[in-house]
Structures are given as C-alpha cells and as structure tokens.
Amino acid sequence: MIYLDHAATTPMRPGVLEDMGPFLVGEFGNPSGVHEVSRRAKNALEEARERIAAVLGARPMEIVFTSGGTESDNLALKGAVYNNTARSGLVTVATEHDAVLETAYFLRRQGHEVSLVGVDGSGMVSPEDLVAAITEQTAVVSVMTANSETGVLADVAQLASAVKEQHPQVLFHTDAVQAFNSEDVATGHMDMISLAGHKLGGPKGSGLLYVREGLHLEPVLHGGGHELGRRSGTQNIAGAVGMATAMELAVADRERFRMVVAAIRDDFEKRALAGIDGAVVNGEEAVRTPQHLNLRVPGVRNQVLLMRLDQAGVAASAGSACQSGAAKVSHVLESMGLTPEQARETVRFSFGWDSTPEDGSTAAEILVDLVGELL
Predict the structure, then answer these.
(1) Nearest CA among 136, 120, 33, 32 for reference residue 84
(2) What is the pLDDT of residues 112-163, one digit of tens each?
(3) What distance in Å separates the CA atoms of residue 268 and residue 258, rounded to the nearest whole number?
(4) Where does residue 254 rank: exposed (0-12), middle (13-18), buried (19+ CB within 10 A)?
(5) Which of 91, 185, 306, 338 could cross-link 333 (Cys pair, CB 3.0–4.6 Å)?
(6) pLDDT digits (tens, 9 = 90+) for 282-311
(7) What's the CA gap between 36 and 34, in Å, rounded?
C-alpha cells in the first residue's frame, strides 16, 4: 500500500515507540501519587513537558497535556470564552477544522457571539477582514496555521500581530496540528497553540495546548485538578513521552522534510496535471505546506476514485479524516468558492516523513490510469 494520507495520521517515527515502551509495560505508576512508583511516572511526565517546552521556546508550566488536537481546540476556545465574563465572543475562519467550527457552533447555541470570517478563492483570510470582525464582545480569535484539507498556510504571526495591535485584550489561538512537520511553530504573539502527537510521527491519544503564562482558562474537564487545574484526568505518561520524542525528531528532520517531501509532492502534482485533462489544484495560488495536495478531477466523483485507488494500493482521502466516509461536502472548498459538485470531485493526497520518490511517481501513474478509465 502506498500511503498518501499523512494529513489524517502518520506512522510513528523510529525511536518513539522505544521511548514509550517502559511506560506501556513496566512503569505503570500514576503521577499524582506520593510513593516511588508514582514519583518515577511524575519525573517522566515532567521531563517530557520540559522537552516539549524547549522545542516550542516555552516554559514547562505553559504546556498542558491533552488527548489530542480536538480536545486542545475545545479547551482553548471554551476555556477562553467561559473564563471571560466581560467578553465572551469568538472570531474564527470559515475554513477551520471541525474541532474549531463545531465548538464555535456550540458556543453560538449557548448565546455567545460568534463570527466566521470568509476567505478568498485561494483559501486565505485577510488581516483586515479578521480584525474587522472583532467586537467589544470578542474574547478570542482562532486561525489555523495550515489548512487540513488544502495545506494553505496562514501567516498567523501577521494575523496575531494585527489583532493584538488594535485589540490587545483579545486572545489569539492557532491550531498548528497540520503545520508542525514542515513549519516553525513559535509562541511569539500566540496565546494558545494546539498540537496533536499522531500528526507529527507520535502516538494517537496524545496532544497538548500551549497556554501563555498568566492566562487562565476555565477547564472543560472537571475532576482532580491535574495539569495545574487546567485539564483533569490521569495523564498519559507514555503518550507524553512519545510526543516529546516525536516533536524533537520532527524538528531535527524539518529541513530535510521541506526539501524531500516537497519534491515528491511537486513531482506527483506535475505528473497528475500533465496526465489528467482539466485537473485543478485547489489553493494553488497560495503558500502551501510541502506535504498537501488538494486535487480536483472534473467529471470523477471522489468517492469512486478513492475506492479505485484503494483497490489499486493507494491510500488517499476526500478531505478531513474527521469526516471521511461522510456524504458531507467539504466546507473548506465551498468557502473557497467551489460548487458542491466541484467539491465532490476533489481528492486530498498528503505526503509524510516516510514517503519516497517511488511512492509519488508510482501513485501518480496509477491515478492517471484510473482517471482515464473512469472518464
């Protein structure tokens, strides 16, 4: 199987499982205890927190461990809105991941002011439009760093700066889940950053939310007051250790990743465009990550093409993994101006740290041949 669905999940990088191993079998302690078994677990947890903080240029106390990107997004947005009695609104972008959008819709149903800012045809949001959507009720603005379907990169540093310049009291959050493998993720003007372990070569069930020191969030999960009262629940020690290792490996590999994976993706894209009449790259005019390709094949339904690709040994998807298999039309593509029919002609190919040039060239050849049979 040629795996071209790394935006959905990635295989673990070499060395991650080995570092997790002791905490999956032998070191089983609960880090909240006081005896030696628990102390060993607590030491491992805090060492992982320190390693992750060093990668992000943050302080250890600013790292909150979660179960993944979805929980991190929920904690960031609900936590910011619920904690602010004077300002309890949210501004976000129409092309965000469902973890952000469904949270926004939930908050709207509760009576909070929610604004969704549109994007242009390439999937970009302008600083002017984002700032214009902020009102006296806005508590937090959320813009993802890299779109999960198209790979379109937002200049979140510029957007955060524009927001802070005019509204310094408004918090800024970014979902950087899809960006970490190829992009420098820095705290900078960010108040909160969401990351997920399994998108960067780490284990599923691991994630984090960077929370700027001094910022208080109302917890979403209530219980024993773990993570300095910000996220209750016994911590996943093995997941935290694995995520720390994966993040360090991803940063060390980033320069190679940018060059090699971009070359594989670009070669695949070139072959696909040359071999398929009318094929279109969604978001082509924008700056994209080197690993994403959102390709529209006019006249071919994506579910049919995905099934044939799977039968031929190529794994791809129709969009976000959270809505794979659903008949739902991509809100990302509709927000970029595509019709529902055009959106249903679109397939996402996403490459990763273990992709090879042979993967790309062989998959492109299979794709072109299958489309020729279907048209």
Answers:
(1) 136
(2) 999 999 999 999 999 999 999 999 999 999 999 999 999 999 999 999 999 9
(3) 15
(4) middle
(5) 338
(6) 999 999 999 999 999 999 999 999 999 999
(7) 7
Catalytic, 5? Answer no
pLDDT of 36 strictly over 80:
yes
CA dist 295 and 281 (Å) reads 5
The stretch 263-290 carries a mean pLDDT of 97
How many whole angstroms separate alpha carbon 159 and alpha carbon 102?
A: 22
Residue in 186, 106, 93 with CA at minimum distance from that of residue 148: 93
Residues 318 and 81: their CA atoms lie apart, in Å, by 32
Tell me the whole-structure pTM to 2 decimals. Answer: 0.95
| Residue 82: other Cβ atoms inside 10 A | 17
Residue 325 has pLDDT above 70, yes or no: no
How many whole angstroms from its chain centre is CA 188? 18
**Rounded Cα–Cα distance for residues 45 and 317 (Å):** 35
Residue 7: how many CB atoms within 10 A of its CB? 30
Q: Vertex 59, ends 53 and 64: CA angle to 5°? A: 70
Task: Give the Cα separation of 28 and 22 in Å (integer).
Answer: 8
Exposed/middle/buried for residue 297 (C-beta within 10 Å: 0-12, 13-18, 19+):
buried
Express each pLDDT in 187-223 by its tens digit: 888 999 999 999 999 999 999 999 999 999 999 999 9
Q: Which residues have CB under 8 Å from 80's CB, separation 6+?
A: 139, 140, 171, 173, 192, 217
Answer yes or no: are the C-beta atoms of 320 and 148 closer than 8 Å.
yes
**182 is written with which tokens?**
């190829």
Catalytic residue among 273, 322, 366, 368: 322
Confidence grade of residue 33 (pLDDT, cut at 50, 70, 90): confident
Residues 255/294/365/299 CA torsion (nearest 10 deg): -170
